[in-house]
Amino acid sequence: TQLLEQSPQFLSIQEGENLTVYCNSSSVFSSLQWYRQEPGEGPVLLVTVVTGGEVKKLKRLTFQFGDARKDSSLHITAAQPGDTGLYLCAGVRNNNNDMRFGAGTRLTVKP
Amino acid sequence: AAGVIQSPRHLIKEKRETATLKCYPIPRHDTVYWYQQGPGQDPQFLISFYEKMQSDKGSIPDRFSAQQFSDYHSELNMSSLELGDSALYFCASSLGHGTALYGYTFGSGTRLTVV
Question: What is the count of structural domains for chain A?
Answer without folding.
Answer: 1
